[in-house]
Amino acid sequence: MDMEKKDLKLDVLVRHDPDRGVYVAQCLQLDITVQAPSMDKLKERFSHAFGAYVMLLRETDDVSKAIRSAPRPYWELFLTGNVDERDLPIFVPAEAKSRVGSVRATFSVTKRVAPLEAASP
If 11 and its partner were Cys, which of 19, 28, 66, 80 is the partner (CB 3.0–4.6 Å)? Predict the structure, then answer.
């Protein structure tokens, strides 16, 4: 049975904590979070984490079923952040290319470093 490939557009909220020297990325559609000491390393780690996530979903007929929107406070932070990179191509493992088409991500950096739990209503 042939499965339709899904093109994915991901939005990634990035928080920078200069006191700890770390960037933290949270995908707003998938349960993927990574941290790194620089934006370049963060994007690299996010791409690898996405690849691992897709491999875990190999048993799923429809990868889009794993997509869930993040709570509103995360989106508010994303929308008020500064876009660092738009439509960055994300690596898709060869084993998943039959189910996943192209993947692109937009990274938005927020100046807010407080924990997101504190931003919840």
Answer: 28
In a domain, 121, yes or no: no
**How many CB atoms lie under 10 A from the CB of residue 78?**
21
pTM value? 0.75
Length of the chain: 121
User: Tell me, what CATH number does 26's domain have?
Assistant: 3.30.160
Range of the domain at 84: 6-113
Rounded-to-10 torsion of CA 112, 113, 114, 116 = 80
Residue pLDDT, tens place only, 23-81: 999 999 888 899 999 999 999 999 889 888 877 776 666 656 667 778 888 888 888 88
Distance CA 75, CA 73 (A): 5
Structure tokens at 74: 């995360």
Inside any domain, residue 84: yes
Residue among 43, 107, 42 at smallest CA distance from 77 = 107
